[in-house]
Amino acid sequence: MPGEVICRFTDVQKAFGSNVVYDGLNLEIRRGETLTIIGGSGQGKSVCLKMLIGLLKADGGSITAFGQEVTGMTETQLIDVRSRVAMLFQGGALFDSMTVAENIKYPLVEHAWGTPAEMDDRVTEVLELVDMPGVEQRKPSELSGGMKKRVALARTIAMQPEVILYDEPTTGLDPITIRRINGLILRLQERLGVTSVVVTHDMDTVFTVTDRLALVYKKHIAFTGTPDEAKNCDMRYLREFVKGGMGTLDEDLD
Can you give the residue range of the structural domain that contains 156? Predict the structure, then answer.
């Protein structure tokens, strides 16, 4: 069962110029759970993840990770947070000029994780965890979209993070690959004991992997609860979103 709160957003404000993304974001992430963040396009779901690891700075409020205040941290201070909270970016963000092994080793080298031999062993280990053994010397250009996503996931878990942030992990993938990625999210949570936060539009993903979901609506979190609670919620926008899935809904629904 999910445990104590390990990351918390309290009254967080964020705007880009005149575009207010969050006006009072409150959200808790509990150890061991898979929390899914849903909401319409352009509502700031990925912004939430990036603020947690300091890639974007909040304009106000408090963001804590493992009891540490993140909002005022320098890049040096953020290194520890980013070793414990890792992000799988939507496009995978693999380096085209590097082999698969070099891509996975990149964060290990940056953090002086171990000896070259230990890094090689770690590459082998994480590739096996994502069902991609034996591809160490291939380049990203030789891989399919789903394979790239799994290699990027292998790189994400290489540093043994406690929390994995997934930014639209199944976007652009076929249904078979989507099911495979969803299975990996569940398996990594079970085998590695990680906490997962998943931003997605895909309702199959939501109802496959989620312990709790959070709905971003009108610049804040308008609902948190289990998938069953979401299905039975009186909030019209949430009901329509759960049925429609892609967030192309009338923003005036309530």
Answer: 5-244
Please state the domain count of the chain: 1
Name the burial class of residue 138, with classes exposed (0-12), middle (13-18) and buried (19+) by CB atoms within 10 angstroms of its CB. middle
Per-residue pLDDT of the chain (254 residues), as tens digits, is 557 999 999 999 999 999 999 999 999 999 999 999 998 888 889 999 999 999 999 999 999 999 999 998 999 899 889 889 999 987 668 889 999 999 999 988 888 888 999 999 999 999 999 989 999 999 999 998 888 989 999 999 998 999 999 999 888 888 888 888 899 899 888 888 899 999 998 888 999 999 999 999 999 999 999 998 998 888 988 888 777 654 444 444 44
Closest CA to 40 of 246, 254, 253, 203: 246
Residue 57 domain flag: yes
